[in-house]
Structure prediction request, 94 residues.
Amino acid sequence: MPICEVDISPLMTNTNAKMSTLLAKIRATDPRRPSQSDVATAIGTSQSYYSKLERGDVRVPTDLAPLLAAYFQQRISVIQILYPEQYAELEVQP
Prediction:
């Protein structure tokens, strides 16, 4: 008999996909219209690695979060980058 019968399926969602949405929204609404390559160069990574971050294939490392926040002129915070599951419905301001 299980100790606790709690449905944890909502907790098993892909939080990386939520980060993808946030980074993609921020980049898409940036008035500078940066490419993935532009962002990657600015934060010192390759375009392919930044693409993985934006898609949510990998989580944003703690050392890159402040660089991303600075690049996007604080339109997204370090906390929002590191904990995307808390900000899945973030409204992006141009």
Notes: The first helix runs from residue 15 to 29. Residues 14-87 form a domain with the 434 Repressor (Amino-terminal Domain) fold (CATH 1.10.260.40). The mean pLDDT is 79.
